[in-house]
Amino acid sequence: MSWLERTELLVGPEKLEVLKNSNVLVVGLGGVGAYAAEMICRAGVGKMTIADGDVVDESNRNRQLPALTSTVGQPKTEVLAQRFRDINPEIELTTVNDFIRDEITIELLQSQPFDYVVDAIDTLSPKVFLINHSINMGLNVVSALGAGGKSDPAKVQVADISKSYNCKLGRVLRKRLAKLGIRKGFKVVFSPEEVAEGAVRLEEGQNKKSTVGTISYMPPVFGCFVASVVIRDLLDKKATTLIL
Asked: Which helix (H) or strand (E) covers residue 243, if one does?
């Protein structure tokens, strides 16, 4: 009995082969990205690259997949690589234990023929850089917007970036991308829910100026939405190609 028996029952053997022959890049393995990556892995995608330069921190345990008391201090890429190979021993997995920005981004995008790029970066500049260069290279992209400060999973949506609203990260992202000539053309996962009052703490850090309160289930919900975009698009586009 194959571990993908239930997946094949749902999508059929031809589309299961499409997933097995697909190659997905996931950048950012925090609360959203790690869950997105695991759902993509569990769907049977045969080739993946996961990238993040961070290690598991004690504060990650309320919401992040790789975060356990036993994994604190370990690189997130290594923790997740072990999980993914335990899920699918046949997966072709590349790990990049580095923060993806500037020239590293371009090198990574050119390293393999990716069928889809997942942006789960929570820092604005490298997020803009990844999306911009992915689109300029003709790659399919889905981007996760802000899950922090939200608590209602029923309000999470998928839309073109131009249709996103009432999300601070989305607003700034649209503004930055517009200066680069990008106003539409890729999907985002977002929630228009108002950020809970008192959920933001201002602080100065290396990569961020504030910390936003986050509940356990919201980043996984965002991650599952992201994975669903990737999987459904891969199946739709590849199936259309096969028919043609």
From this structure: helix 218-243
CATH no., domain 11-237:
3.40.50.720
Q: Tens of pLDDT along 181-230?
A: 999 999 999 999 999 778 888 766 555 567 899 999 999 999 999 999 99
Backbone angles phi, psi at 104, to 5 degrees: -60, -40
Residues whose CB falls within 8 Å of the CB of residue 194, separated by 6 or more in sequence, listed in order: 166
The pTM of the full predicted model, rounded to 2 decimals, is: 0.93
- Per-residue buried b or exposed e for 153-185, using 16+ beta carbons within 10 Å of the residue's own CB: beebbbeebeebeebebbeebbebbeeeebeee
Distance CA 114, CA 106 (A): 13
Relative to beta strand 187-190, strand 157-160 is antiparallel
- Distance from C-alpha of 211 to C-alpha of 40, rounded to nearest angstrom: 28
C-alpha span between 88 and 92 (Å, rounded): 9
Q: pLDDT tens, 92-138?
A: 999 999 998 888 999 999 999 999 999 999 999 999 999 999 999 99
The string of DSSP letters for 151-163 reads --GGG-EEEEGGG
Quote the pLDDT of residue 199: 83
| C-beta separation of 62 from 70 below 8 A | no
Is the pLDDT at 242 greater than 50? The verdict is no
Phi, psi dihedral angles at 4 (to 5 degrees): -100, 20
